[in-house]
Fold these 2 entries.
Entry 1:
Amino acid sequence: MARKTPEINSSSMADIAFLLLIFFLVSTTMDIDTGIYKKLPPIPEEEEIDAPKVKQRNVLAILVNRNDDLLVNGEILSISQLREKTKEFILNPLNSADLPEKKLTTIPFFGDVMVSKGLVSLQNDRGTSYEMYIKVQDELAAASRELKDEKAMQKWNKKYADLNEEQQDAVRDYVPMQISEAEPKNVGGKK
Amino acid sequence: MGKFKKGGSKELPEISTASLPDIVFMLLFFFMVSTTMREVELNVNIMVPSAKEIVKLEKKDLVSNIYVGVPMRKFAKTMGTEPQIQLNDQFSTVDDIQAFIAAEREARKEELRNKLTTSLKVDQYTKMGIIIDIKQELRKASSLKLNYSTRETAE
């Protein structure tokens, strides 16, 4: 009755699969994008020239010139010192008169605490290298993270990243890190 | 003593290759799932700077890339050796960025348009001037989510 159909030779299947495999290996990438996340300030609607007045003691002015030198509140620092400087600025542990003021704020979980009014202002030259800019951003982010971790450790004995959302919000309110990037200036002359 | 068979006359049985396609297909599926298609061909050399405080960029389909770097050797004659901006597949100027962002928005679904992130892939030796200009253009295009692409510092 029914004749037996001859079996299809599948020895070339491997070759076909290899071809496909090689095609996908060549045409795809595996890299995962990582980076520093930032939010740009929107362009003001009207020409608002009168920026909110901030007291000098509340500002940590970071200037980077075209030779990638760092000037923090009139003091030449190296990049490795920036983190400690920023942390000291935000915390103001000794309540010294030339570091930022503090304001009594009520924060969930923590109650009434003194929160720093400090503001980091970052300004760089057009000739500053991108590498240096990223380094400064990285150090500031690291300082912020370390402060948050410290507070989270004191309160919950956990790292900031392991807290739940409400706790994270509270910690963020406790040690705020405001970074304002000034409009660029051409310090150090034309390039 | 014992009896020994004389070898030599018997041949080894051939190894079956019937399962080879299965193995290769498994590899194939692994690579298909874990990789993404290369979107653009780079015309500029980019070595992004390294940093420690990095986050992973989620949702690749909501990311538009701006590349900045020195043109590759083969373009050196026409484009020079100063850092250039690359959008999609071609060299562009700062003025093209607003149109580029508009086009990127247009290509996404309406409800996802304001979730678009711009990823700046910039060579580490670029000067900040060009990046400041790009940032200003992005602000004008009100595309405010920005990601500076970096690689992780090797400890």
Entry 2:
Amino acid sequence: MTRKQRRLTVIGAALAVIGVAAGLVLFAMRDTIVFFYGPSEIAAKGVQPGTRLRIGGLVKEGTLQRGPDQTVRFEVTDTAKDVPVRYRGLLPDLFREGQGVVAEGVLEADGVFKADSVLAKHDEKYMPREVADALKKQGVWQHAPEKTGATPASAQK
Amino acid sequence: MIVEAGHYALVLAFALSLVLAVVPMWGAAARDPALMAVARPAAFAMLVMVALSYGALTWAYVGSDFSVMNVVQNSHSMKPLAYKISGVWANHEGSMLLWVLILALFAGLVAARGGRMPARLLSNVLAVQGAVAAAFLLFILTTSNPFARVAPAPFEGDGLNPILQDPGLAIHPPLLYLGYVGFSIAFSFAVGALIEGRIDAVWARFVRPWTLTAWCFLTLGIAMGSYWAYYELGWGGWWFWDPVENASLMPWLAGTALLHSTVVMEKRDALKVWTMLLSILAFSLSLIGTFLVRSGVLTSVHSFASDPARGVFILAILVVFIGGALTLFAWRAPVLRQGGVFAPVSREGALVLNNLLLATACATVFVGTLYPLALEAVTGWWSPDNPSKISVGAPFFNATFLPLAFPLMLAIPFGQSLAWKRGDLLGVAQRLAFAIAVGVVVAIVILALTVGGPVLAPVGVGLGVYLILGSATEIATRAWRRGAGLGVMLRRAAGLPRSAWGTALSHAGVGVTVIGIAATAWGVESIVTLQPGQSTRLGDYTVTLEAVTPRNGPDYRETVARLRVTRDGQSLGVLEPGKRVMVGRSMPTSEAGLMTLGLGQVYASVGEIEPNAAGLRLYWKPMVLLIWLGAVVMALGGGLSLLDRRARIGAPAPARAAVPAPAE
């Protein structure tokens, strides 16, 4: 086999693998990508039932209801619109009414969002960026109060 | 005072890194031995200064010096000593200092072991390493000073993020950094050699042990991180395809490819251009990982703080080094002479296939990780109020990564058995017939026993068995001799080069991990609310809630659910998952309860705790430990290869070498 043929074999194999990979990526992009919306956007865009998405906002005060076997219902609000959410599973440690939350799942025909994962803040300081963005969008974002006893006046950044 | 000395040492280290970056490279270009001789002492001095600086910060942590901002924000006087020490790298500033310490450590090691390297190559390599160190030292000094003081000093610190206070944290970052940063050596070797314009098999011999070392640490670091997320985050998952995880997986994939292409270059003087490119890419992906994790574009436990200045600075470092190295590559690569010729079916051909699949898999992970960021940036620029936000999760990676990983795994046993230059595919297939047959039979038997269960899992287990037996076949084939007794063959097997054993072990480790991953499909999950005294079924086990009790730890209070696990009426022990509140914190964290039964684990985490009931998430995870054990076996294989005499080039031959090595 000549050097040229060898090179063609390698290039052919490379193109084949890259082609397959590109096909897989494009195929997966169409089916597995999940968009992130706030409650107002869901209403505005007329999202089709059955679409998989992530929603974010605040857990509306007074809407958290616990059912049997760890089922919960609550509403996610951006202060303008609300979306009812159903979820079965353990809520994150920092899940609270009035706090930011991101849920991933499917919007059902009756307008209830059936979540299969719920994210809240990691701890006092850290919040999923999507939650922060959703809150900022609606102008209800507040910076976490500084917890350090002394004000870091001389801290040089 | 010691804190200021630490800061000063860091400034000195920066000055030394500049000297190291400029003088030896000038010397190499001018062929001036005196200037080139600066390289090694400068590398040592830089290491000493960074180490002093790091020691000073550790001292501040151990002594709880709350006049240091970094200590205030990340430590607490009641913290156990081990977490005071590991707390040093559990924050942005300290972890960047650890990053540079390891960079300097590798420069020092290259300098120490570089006595036998050509002077010009050594000078260039150390100079490039110095330039990288200079960039990151400047980054620390200007944007992330860990020694900043606070006045007046508070009485007590804020404490460490509770989920970071864990033995896993103490080990995960140093291991990961040894891997990430270890690839800087391959990068420096590639850039150094491209500057010099001389690249040959000798280069590959010098660079291979360093790549292998970095790869072993990265493998362990990723496995450790995965296990930590598994037991600490309370979700029971071991891999989430989270961008931060992908940031460590990409350098690993590129590094694995590099490891294999360097073998071809060392043995056959081929694939030079590609190996240069991979050397640059592996470290570039490490840098991109650092950027993703440290700049705050992603939010996770790893993004300790987001300050736009830091992101821009790291992005600038990225552009300069990756852009510079790739430009140099584009300019110099055409000069490289083509090396040895080989047939498509040969060890080289198999290694090319390995590289092709690994590089493509790496590219799909890259696309999936960066596409959401790119889309948001582009649409945000287009319409600032309403950028498109998407998330690319596990389904994407499962649909793209796994189809590429599967043929790669099928090819592994063939690759390691094929001969160099021209291989005999049929002959190899005959030798592997046993491994193939057993793998297929295992898959079919499991499939038949679990009709209606998951389909891919039995295939995965069969694949894992085939990989392990394939490795065993390779060792057996090399030890076998017609008519020889078992004793002779065992002696022959023991006499095989350590690198042969290392290869076989690492590839078997892949099989072990694959079996562990496949077995996750047979896991059982149960979400229940139990009152004390109530039980629930979990696969073959019964879990009973005995009591919900409060308890105090050294620097936390917790509420623990006592769960007894029984099987057929026999008690197997007690699990104690709980909710923990650290001193100085208000929010609770979950602590999972784990019980290891054979290779599987019963996993429990608590949700809502009420006075007379506890919400529980229970899992039975069969063979789950194999996932991480496999990674440890892979790393052990790499370590064994490192001990091979061939890895220590030019080492004086030990007397035992007089015993004739077995013919291959």
